[in-house]
From TrEMBL:
Domain of life: Bacteria
UniProt biased composition (Basic and acidic residues): 55-82, 140-167, 225-241, 508-536, 562-583, 592-601
InterPro entries in the cross-refs: aRib, LPXTG_anchor, Rib, Rib_alpha_Esp_rpt, Tcp10_C_sf
Organism: Limosilactobacillus reuteri (strain ATCC 55730 / SD2112) (Lactobacillus reuteri)
Biased composition annotated in UniProt, kind: Polar residues: 259-273
Protein name per Swiss-Prot or TrEMBL: LPXTG-motif cell wall anchor domain protein
All copies of domain Gram-positive cocci surface proteins LPxTG, residue ranges: 766-800
Length: 800
């Protein structure tokens, strides 16, 4: 209800009454019980009382809009319209207020209003729908607006979203003629198929009043109500109906580029300098320059007036790597001798170098490969020639003759041998690499190699087996080694596990414990063999056991199953002492003394000087002491010593050697066929036994003779003589029941030499003996020294 300023509307006109069937009722009376305030424009409220013919009454609140002085409400003055391009998602009614726009008479936005749908749009399916919005202003005035709504599809898209609209390519028109809007655009669906069901109009027409290029804007409206705009360039022909494309003829040319570069479309038109200034050149389709060779393309020439034309048959040459690079022989790399080189194998770095077309140094493209085409002969050291293929990333190739230097390989330089004592469990092949040891020329361990069994050892039964390991070095060289393997028994034991070789009781004396001679090694072997024998002299080690000795005296006991035990060298050998290494010469002339059992200090001094004179090369620091009986002890700087028996150093005037020496009877008798007539061989054996038994007893120059009956005559250098009876030296094979009968005696003749026979003065050399510490007691010498000191030394015969 609206009314003019200061005019109260009729009460009956201010209400409407309907019966139960919704039909209008007019038979009633009405009056204002409270009039609305109509003194000022805007919204006011009054109360109307209605009186029906039956006398019943009711009241109604009546809102009244009071027009302004010009007789207008806010609805009259404002401009309300549907929001342009209103879209919504499927099944979603947009807000009513967002669906309209309201402006005041000055075109300024109005936001102070209420809005509601009196008819909602159908949003249940994609497409175009229409609803009605009622707008209520603060003054109570109202108006309605029809609102077109575009409903997006299930993907939330309209036709404008899904279709692709663009300006018609090469659109031209005559002077002063605007082309049809729909002809000025092309629309395609998501499948690139043409769309024709749309409306189009120029929202901004192109300027067609003069020839040349102009631009307009076309608005496209789709059936679902969605819209989009497209900028449309238009070429306006001249007064003769021509464009610049009509009056110019571009010519296809050729352009060269490197891989990956974009060729210049302008350079591909050979007469581009003859075409109008401002002409643009574009490739219709991009040219693939990732691979070398000649490519063909089409250039689109667009003139300043907007007209364009296509120039097909343009050639683009993409340089190959071989177009840009010359591969030449480079350095002469070292190649290990004997290494297998196959066609296609990678060649050494630097064997070829890259040069550009001006023969200047350059680099090969990343990804270039150099492989052998013809392998060099690497059988012998020295230079060899071959041929390599350079394959560039673009698959083009160059072939180059090259030279290599064949050098000793890792296999030539390294030393490989089977690992010591390789053992394994039954049915388990040991790792090949663990089964070998490799050292370089400096004897340092080498670990950078691969190893595999070319012939596996038989591990199916306990014992010794042999396999073959092939070793491959980083330089590609190879070598093989035979590897003995010991397979443990079912209990996991080897013969080394089950045997414990004994160490000799006495160490073998050697000159240098770090470098034994062959003879010393043989002595050690014998000592170990003897230490591992039972009471019957049989070896306690398994048959077939081998004993070897290293330079440092380490003993390796290798059992038949290949397992080994080791005895450290310091357990079986020791260095010789000064006493061991020094030969002592007994003075050739004995010192004459008054009493050989009790020398004076002066006589002891003479003995000491005699020893020094006979041994001028004794080590510095050596000390000599002389006992009362003339026995001399030579003490070396390392604590070892030797003893010379007094009888070899002193004599009483008129006393012979036979007076002083008691021959030792050999422990073993020689069995002879005829005790009355010994053979020469039997005599030699008797002689050897006597000499051996007295090797530290007889003075040098003593002669032993054996008679036919086996009696031994000992003649000393002074001519005196001793004898050992045959009974003590020989025996005849005994008949049954005769064993154990008969003994012999030793006879001594102090006056065996004829009167007046001279005695030769000679020096003799003592055997090398040492003492424990360096240092074993010189058994016979020290014993005689001690006995001499007690007055109980070897036999001294009284003077005749």
């Amino acid at each position: 209800m609206t009314t003019d300023l200061n005019k109260v509307p009729a009460a009956k006109d201010s209400v409407t009454v309907t019966d139960p069937d919704k039909k209008p009722v007019t038979d009633f009376g009405a009056n204002w019980t409270k009039e609305p305030d109509v003194s000022k424009p805007g919204k006011s409220t009054g109360t109307v009382e209605i009186t029906y013919p039956d006398g019943s009454k009711e009241t109604v609140e009546v809102p009244v809009t009071v027009r302004d002085e010009n007789g207008k409400t806010q609805a009259d003055k404002n401009d309300a319209k549907a929001t342009d391009g209103l879209t919504t998602d499927l099944n979603k009614v947009p807000a009513a207020k967002d669906s309209v726009t309201v402006t005041d008479p000055d075109k300024k936005p109005v936001t102070d209003f209420g809005a509601n749908w009196t008819k909602e749009p159908d949003v249940s399916k994609p497409g175009k729908s229409t609803g009605t919005v009622e707008i209520t202003y603060p003054d109570g005035s109202k108006e309605t607006v029809e609102v077109p709504v575009t409903v997006r599809d299930e993907n939330g898209k309209t036709q404008a979203d899904k279709n692709d609209a663009k300006a018609t390519d090469g659109l031209t028109t005559d002077l002063n003629k605007v082309p049809a809007a729909k002809d000025s655009v092309t629309v395609t669906d998501p499948d690139k198929k043409p769309v024709t069901d749309f409306g189009a109009n120029w929202t901004k027409e192109p300027d067609v009043s003069k020839p040349g290029k102009s631009t307009g804007t076309v608005e496209i409206t789709y059936p679902d109500g969605s819209k989009e705009t497209v900028e449309v360039p238009v070429t306006v022909r001249d007064e003769n109906g021509h464009t610049q494309a009509d009056t110019n003829t571009p010519e296809a040319g050729k352009v060269t580029v490197n891989k990956g570069e974009t060729p210049s479309a302008q350079s591909a038109i050979s007469n581009n300098k003859e075409l109008p200034e401002g002409t643009q050149y574009d490739w219709k389709e991009p040219i693939d320059t990732t691979t070398p060779g000649d490519k063909t393309g089409t250039v689109v020439v667009t003139y300043p007036d907007g007209s364009s034309e296509e120039v097909p048959g343009v050639t683009v040459h993409v340089n190959s790597d071989t177009d840009l690079i010359n591969a030449k022989a480079g350095n002469t790399p070292d190649v290990p001798r004997g290494v297998e080189i196959k066609q296609g194998d990678e060649a050494p770095a630097g064997i070829v170098v890259a040069k550009d077309k001006d023969d200047k140094d350059t680099t090969f493209p990343e990804g270039t490969k150099v492989t052998w085409e013809t392998a060099p002969d690497v059988t012998n050291n020295g230079q060899a020639t071959g041929k390599v293929t350079v394959t560039y990333p673009d698959k083009t190739t160059d072939t180059v003759d090259v030279t290599v230097k064949v050098v000793p390989s890792d296999a030539d330089k390294n030393e490989v041998k089977a690992a010591d004592g390789v053992t394994t469990n039954l049915n388990k092949v040991p790792a090949a690499k663990d089964s070998v040891t490799v050292t370089d020329p400096d004897k340092k361990p080498v670990t950078d190699f691969e190893a595999n069994w070319t012939k596996e050892p038989d591990v199916s039964k306990p014992g010794k087996s042999t396999g073959t390991v092939e070793i491959t070095y980083p330089d590609g060289s190879k070598e093989t080694v035979e590897v003995p393997v010991t397979v443990r028994d079912a209990n996991g034991h080897t013969q080394a596990d089950k045997n414990d070789p004994k160490t000799p009781g006495n160490k073998v004396k050697v000159d240098d414990p770090t470098k034994l001679t062959d003879g010393e090694k043989e002595d050690v072997v014998k000592a170990v063999e003897d230490a591992n024998k039972d009471d019957n002299g049989n070896s306690t080690l398994p048959d077939g056991t081998k004993i070897t000795v290293g330079d440092n005296g380490d003993v390796t006991v290798t059992y038949p199953d290949g397992s080994k035990d080791t005895i450290p060298g310091d357990k079986v050998v020791e260095g010789k002492t000064d006493a061991d290494k020094t030969d002592v010469t007994v003075p050739g002339t004995k010192v004459e003394v008054g009493d050989p059992t009790k020398l004076t200090d002066g006589e002891k001094g003479q003995v000491e000087e005699a020893i020094k004179d006979a041994n001028p090369n004794l080590p510095d620091g050596t000390k000599i002491t002389v006992a009362d009986d003339g026995t001399a002890t030579i003490l070396y700087p390392d604590g070892s010593y030797k003893v010379i028996d007094g009888q070899d150093l002193v004599t009483k005037p008129g006393q012979t050697t036979a007076d002083q020496v008691t021959p030792v009877v050999p422990g073993d008798k020689v069995t002879v066929v005829d005790p009355n007539h010994l053979t020469d061989a039997e005599k030699d054996q008797v002689k050897t036994n006597v000499e051996k038994a007295n090797q530290n007893n007889f003075p040098a120059g003593t002669v032993v003779m054996v008679a036919d009956d086996g009696t031994a005559t000992i003649t000393y250098p002074d001519g005196s003589v001793d004898q050992i009876s045959a009974a003590d030296l020989i025996t005849k094979p005994m008949a049954a029941g005769q064993a154990g009968k008969g003994t012999g005696t030793t006879t001594t003749n102090g006056q065996g030499a004829p009167a007046g026979q001279g005695k030769a003065d000679q020096a003799k050399t003592l055997p090398q003996t040492g003492n424990e510490q360096g240092s074993l007691l010189a058994a016979s010498g020290l014993g005689m020294l001690l006995l001499g000191m007690l007055g109980l030394g070897g036999k001294r015969k009284k003077e005749d």
